[in-house]
Model the fold of this input.
Amino acid sequence: MQYNRTGKWGLKLPAVSLGLWHNFGGVDVFENGRAMLRRAFDMGITHFDLANNYGPPPGSAEENFGKYMQQDFRPYRDELIISTKAGYLMWPGPYGEWGSRKYLISSLDQSLKRMGLEYVDIFYSHRPDPDTPLEETMMALDQAVRSGKALYAGISNYPADMTREASKILKLLGTPCLIHQPKYSMFERWIEDGLLDVLEEEGIGCIPFSPLAQGLLTDRYLNGIPEGSRASKSWGFLKPEQVGPAIEKVRKLNEIAVSRGQSLAQMALAWVLKDHRITSVLIGASSVRQLEDNVAALEKLAFSDEELEMIRNILE
Ligand SMILES: NC(=O)c1ccc[n+]([C@@H]2O[C@H](COP(=O)([O-])OP(=O)(O)OC[C@H]3O[C@@H](n4cnc5c(N)ncnc54)[C@H](OP(=O)(O)O)[C@@H]3O)[C@@H](O)[C@H]2O)c1
Done:
């Protein structure tokens, strides 16, 4: 595994990190999740990413993770970076979502209980709240760190201008922003338009989620929607109607990947990692085989100018 510094900070993250959004919830096969986490750690993936609402049902990924910790990872707590988040709907009433201090701190307490942890390494504000002053949300992150419930603070899905503002507030509070978690892949490139520049200026790391566009940027859907795939599941966030319109580009990208001697998944991850401002790619997986395929992306990260030009043409 390759480890990269998170922005300008001391913390290093593996170039490939594993998220528990899908395939680790109450609806999934417990032993499959366990096998993936064990294999991931053995390959040097020291960072597991969660959120209060991962499941389904919401909370069940953290509950399962608590069991995996208990069974397998307790002796390795100091070798692990575990993150969680609060921002999306988690419980009824006015305190169960968005960005108030009440919600963030209560949610973090619940997450720690579900996972059986004393602290998380990174606590994120999962999404910006248009109706709560940014100061309040950032004060909650600062409080989480100062109280010892989190080691670092992060933000996710914040646009460039709000990121700059959040960073300013967090610096004043004395708990600087460690990392930003945005959606980024060959199919979703908004962060190139300002956010990456802000992150570099502020010394904040970047861990893009869904670098495989939830599986679209792999060979998974080349021949239709297979049984058991994310797009085939009623609770999957990838909808079947998203597959068709993407597939022509996927086929062309796959040809370039083959000519590079890589799987499309590997090329898609290498493409995200080619920017020096990217700390780690935050992948999902449904099997040990996918995990191994993805980590092997690190064996070939470089692109020729010609390859980049061909990819650019396909994406446009
Ligand atoms: N901050 C946020 O708002 C936010 C939002 C979304 C996600 N996230 C984080 O980002 C993590 C990753 O998101 P994601 O799961 O959407 O990432 P992704 O890596 O884009 O997609 C993962 C899916 O792609 C397929 N796949 C992975 N490797 C493959 C391979 N080698 N060959 C073929 N198919 C492969 C699998 O689909 P199948 O299941 O069909 O096999 C897998 O479940 C999440 O777990 C979560 O931690 C954060």
